[in-house]
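A quick aside before the break. I want you to see a complete sequence-to-structure record at least once, exactly as it would be stored in a machine-readable document. Don't worry about memorizing anything.
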Amino acid sequence: MTEYDLGIIGYGAAGFAAAIRASELTYNGMKIALIGHGDIGGTCVNRGCVPSKYLIEASKQLFSSKNPLYPGIKSSAEINFNELMSSLRNFVSKAREEKYINVIKNFGNIDIYKGKAHFVSKNEVMVNSEKIKATNFIIATGSRPYIPENIDNYVTSDDIWSIDELPRKLAIIGSGAVAMEMAYAFSNLGSEVYVFNRSDHVLKNFDNDISRLLIEHMKNLGVKFIFGDINKADDDYVISDKKYDGFDKILVATSRVPNIDINLDAASVNYRHGIIVDDHLRTSNKMIYAAGDCVEQRLQLETLAGREGVTAVENILGFDKSIDFRSIPWVVFTEPNVASVGLTENQLKDYKKRVIELKNVVKSSILMQDGIVKMLTDKNGTVLGVQAFAPYAAEFIAEAASVIRKQGSYNDFIETMHVFPTVSESIKITAQSFIRDISKMSCCME
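That is the input. The structure line, written in tokens, reads:
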């Protein structure tokens, strides 16, 4: 048996963040076991954020080349999908090596164990045939795709990156971020895309107006939406209101479920759909913490996982830290982006609202892209939530997160000078609409 100060189960975003922060705070003095199975780096770099955004950006370039917006420009483009996917996998491999494999070499206090861990007591796990004991543990085992009943012969966001032939006709089951991003990317690349979903609302954490705008935008790109219960899907067909067939691939992108099959009962760790934690990320076993997608929580985000890994370690070392869930931004990387931070209309009763259309933003007009930005405040002007359907929203939603985090008002946006012309000005103009008619406002009105 090998003993450690800290055992971390999972070497994805949360696990790595925890290991690095623990090393920083103890000047590499804490003896750490970092345990994981599969590719080091977890979902984000290998099967999630990195490959999906690579594919999305490539698809945008192809679409733009085939469909130039500006008068006087003529262009065309071809795709070698096999070559594109090979380059994607090479990029992922390089990112994994640079950001995970090489990074961990800087910390001599961290031992990596490759294998699936399971608890055998309140402070011990087995990995392969070796028992590891630790004073504290952090569970950071992540999540995996959820597969509904009656669906067979499919791919998921975990394994679609291995395909080398562009699906001529693609069925996507689901309505969350993964489903929308993949529908957007494959449609741009030339696939005939069908999205199947039980309800007529996509992106459940966004309000109806944003959902409707995205659906209409995707329809304009050629994506077909089929709403209603899915009775069966197999190989090349999906049965909903009727049978739809001829699909080359069925991509299941319904949701993700926590990986918690590590014998938590032996460790006296309570769980339901995920691991139950308190505000400090401590489980029912006071020596064990949990972070990331394995925790029972509303959002599953790489940045949140990293923050939770850091927070868990800091609390183990005596800090008093918690996560401010109100100020966590999240984005769907369609184009335009869909972004949100704070509360939504669905979560509020008494609030004030302003919505501006991007035709009021000069840079958006230059880009020839429409959209909206919506801001919600209380009666005193304190910002409660911001949502955007806008180009580059992923790049400016953090400004809203910062204002919400410090419980600021719409005046914080107004009093911050923004670069002209940028789409990020839209958030300032939305704030200005609380105090004036923006149709009677010049470009750089302060």
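Two observations worth writing down. The mean pLDDT is 96. The two ends are 66 Å apart (CA to CA). We'll return to this after the break.
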